[in-house]
């Protein structure tokens, strides 16, 4: 990358990745999410260790975690960034639509007053991100949905949703960049908060499911425009 010295670059066998102050796991995950590490790209442990100025042990641990997350895959050729496909988009969203619907329903049934306070605060932060860059919007969106998961008071469900979200991070272009999506998402978030506060479980499930069904359809359009 321009303006980066060799000592500051993390190197794979097909190009450099600029490290940050984060640990190797977070750095590599961020590089995958941002597309700096492309699908199918090989990850060379020794080169990464030299570039991050650490021993091979933390790099090996980071790569193991990424493999467990499903972000990299192992073959006879070594570790590579996991490939993407439209079929995978459908698979991921089919599961997420079901789980987010369950989270919305359960949140409406189990929420307490503090959950509503946190939901409204997360939604205000989402609104405030409207004039920020896409990375800030994505972070605010992720934070909002994590508050919904927490309001369900069902740790196993939240853990499953977190793992699903890790997979969606491999598709670097956010659906929030699609024309009209930001405005629609605000309306859906507001409706979801209202349904959860009113303890309308089925309505909350319907809103959450539709929200991610819309995201799936947009994600497929984005994919078609990329190829």
Q: If you had to describe this structure to a student in words, what would you say it looks like?
A:
With 227 residues, the chain is mainly alpha-helical. The chain folds into 2 domains: 6-81, Arc Repressor Mutant, subunit A (Orthogonal Bundle), CATH 1.10.10; 86-226, Up-down Bundle (Four Helix Bundle (Hemerythrin (Met), subunit A)), CATH 1.20.120. Helices cover 66% and strands 7% of the residues. The chain contains 9 helices and 5 strands. The protein has helices spanning 24-34, 45-52, 56-69, 86-110, 113-128, 134-151, 155-168, 181-197, 201-226; strands spanning 10-12, 15-17, 42-43, 72-75, 78-81. The protein has a 3-stranded antiparallel beta sheet with strand order 3-5-4. It has a two-stranded antiparallel ribbon with strand order 1-2. Strand 1 and strand 2 (15-17) form a beta hairpin. Helix 2 (45-52) crosses helix 3. The radius of gyration is 19 Å and the shape is globular.
- What form results from the Cα inertia axes? globular
CATH superfamily of the largest domain: GntR ligand-binding domain-like
Question: How many domains in all?
Answer: 2
> So how many helices?
9
């Amino acid at each position: 990358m321009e303006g980066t010295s060799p000592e500051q670059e993390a190197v794979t066998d097909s190009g450099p990745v600029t490290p940050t102050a984060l640990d190797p796991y977070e750095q590599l995950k961020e590089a995958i999410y941002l597309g700096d590490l492309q699908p199918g790209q090989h990850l060379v442990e020794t080169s990464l260790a030299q570039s991050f100025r650490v021993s091979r042990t933390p790099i090996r641990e980071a790569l193991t975690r990424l493999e467990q997350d499903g972000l990299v895959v192992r073959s006879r050729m070594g570790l590579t960034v996991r490939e993407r496909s439209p079929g995978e988009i459908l698979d991921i969203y089919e599961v997420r639509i079901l789980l987010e619907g369950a989270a919305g329903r359960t949140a409406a049934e189990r929420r307490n007053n503090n959950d509503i306070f946190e939901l409204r605060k997360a939604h205000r932060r989402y609104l405030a991100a409207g004039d920020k860059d896409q990375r800030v919007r994505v972070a605010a969106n992720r934070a909002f949905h994590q508050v919904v998961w927490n309001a369900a008071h069902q740790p196993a469900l939240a853990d499953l949703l977190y793992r699903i979200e890790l997979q969606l991070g491999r598709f670097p272009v956010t659906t929030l960049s699609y024309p009209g999506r930001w405005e629609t998402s605000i309306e859906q978030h507001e409706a979801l908060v209202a349904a959860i506060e009113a303890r309308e479980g089925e309505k909350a499930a319907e809103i959450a499911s539709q929200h991610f069904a819309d995201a799936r359809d947009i994600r497929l359009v984005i994919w078609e425009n990329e190829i």
